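Quick one, tokens below. Sequence please?
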């Protein structure tokens, strides 16, 4: 990555959005620690090796309905059929009889299909008179039957390495009778804010002070991704405090995230500390909001230094950090959903040469047509522009001004913001 090679102590190099992405992707690798855990404890974690099915699910051919199990050859295509009910197959209590021509079996949902039957007629579709049922024509051979292994066949991959264990995956593991599964250890992420102006909730604001909001949005985004978080509070712009905070964070977490202190003015200070503890690159990324960004390693932990502005923190987290953390956590990530929608905002000013993320709102009109509009003021300190948004309008590196009705790239939020 040539742009980082021209790193100088005073002026961080400028990288395009795509270059910064590629640089981070090249450096990270999945966490090495794998644990075999009780399946319930795997919820929210990532599968560490493919899980093969050791049984057929379901294990037997069985009925999908309450009704009567018959042999399709016993019912004429154009005339009604009369069959004798020879017994009942309950779920978990199979009927051991062979069903002979002219016979059928009462069967419950999940009941094993008795020998000699291949089709189930729903109970609503038969007339029962004593031990005889009358079936009208019009049924399909093989209907209402679940085949053995139709959900999972023996030997098939039931869950893939990198898949997240969600409620459906827990159910699949249980359906295979597995009590434990190998997953990557839950990531531990430490974070702190830097800035002498920052106060924590409960403190009184002095002249020029502000409350630290970044730790709370970071807490929210990290927690919703399922990571263990370690909130290390506000760290003053003081060399010793910063050094101690980085050292503690690296000793206790896989990932360190900071906000603030990576702009040109502050950077030298944090940089000095980090140069002695690891290898960290500082850049100006050609994007808006969120120009300054630092990434690298502090001892064994990966470090992401985000800008201080509250919107910039969320945008850089969402665009750079989230995917990287998921990859380190063992996830097989998929590209984000991108839509092309007409933009109804009057005019979006855009300078070619950087990627811009406008906070947007997708709406659907009465005819079901979607469009997108900017949420209004876009300053990187205007956090309610994030709160009002359900997507980013992504104006790519070479794009220029957007006029009303122009099609734009839109990235709907995926629920973590
Ligand atoms: P910096 O990147 O440290 O120069 O900060 C850029 C802007 O973001 C400044 O206006 C800071 O006051 C503000 N800022 C930095 N950190 C935080 C934070 N944790 N919460 C809210 N605002 C912050
Ligand atoms: Mg600062």
């Amino acid at each position: 990555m040539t742009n980082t090679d021209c790193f100088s102590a005073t002026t961080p190099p400028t990288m395009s959005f795509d270059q910064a992405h590629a640089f981070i992707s090249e450096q990270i690798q999945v966490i090495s620690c794998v644990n075999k855990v009780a399946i319930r404890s795997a919820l929210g974690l990532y599968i560490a090796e493919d899980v093969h099915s050791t049984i057929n699910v379901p294990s037997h051919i069985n009925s999908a309905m309450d009704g009567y199990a018959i042999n399709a050859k016993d019912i004429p295509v154009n005339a009604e059929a009369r069959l004798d009910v020879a017994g009942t197959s309950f779920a978990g209590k199979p009927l051991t009889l062979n069903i002979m021509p002219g016979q059928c079996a009462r069967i419950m949902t999940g009941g094993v299909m008795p020998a000699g039957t291949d089709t189930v007629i729903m109970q609503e579709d038969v007339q029962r008179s004593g031990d005889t049922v009358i079936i009208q024509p019009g049924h399909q051979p093989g209907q209402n039957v679940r085949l053995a292994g139709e959900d999972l066949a023996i030997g098939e991959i039931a869950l893939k390495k990198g898949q997240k264990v969600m409620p459906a995956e827990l159910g699949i593991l249980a359906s295979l009778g597995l009590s434990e599964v190998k997953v990557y250890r839950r990531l531990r992420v430490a974070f702190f804010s830097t800035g002498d102006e920052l106060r924590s909730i409960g403190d009184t604001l002095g002249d020029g002070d502000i409350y630290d909001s970044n730790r709370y949005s970071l807490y929210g985004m990290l927690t919703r991704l399922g990571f263990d978080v370690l909130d290390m509070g506000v760290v003053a712009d003081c060399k010793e405090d910063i050094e101690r905070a980085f050292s503690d964070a690296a000793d206790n977490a896989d990932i360190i995230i900071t906000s603030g202190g990576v702009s040109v003015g502050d950077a030298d200070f944090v940089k000095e500390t980090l140069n002695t503890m690891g290898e960290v690159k500082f850049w100006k990324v050609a994007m808006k909001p969120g120009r300054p960004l630092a990434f690298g390693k502090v001892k064994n932990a990966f470090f992401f230094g985000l800008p201080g502005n509250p919107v910039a923190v969320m945008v850089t987290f969402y665009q750079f950090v989230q995917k990287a953390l998921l990859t380190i956590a063992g996830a097989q990530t998929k590209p984000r959903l991108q839509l092309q929608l007409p933009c109804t905002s009057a005019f979006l000013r855009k300078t070619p040469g950087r990627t811009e993320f406008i906070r947007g709102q997708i709406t659907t009109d009465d005819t079901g047509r979607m469009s997108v509009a900017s949420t209004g003021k876009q300053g990187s300190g205007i956090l309610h522009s994030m709160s009002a948004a359900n997507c980013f309008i992504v104006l790519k590196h070479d794009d220029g001004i957007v006029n009303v009705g122009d099609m734009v790239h839109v990235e709907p939020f995926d629920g973590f913001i």
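Residues 339-416 form a domain with the Beta-clip fold (CATH 2.40.340.10). Helices lie at 2-5, 17-27, 167-175, 214-224, 239-252, 264-277, 310-328, 384-387.
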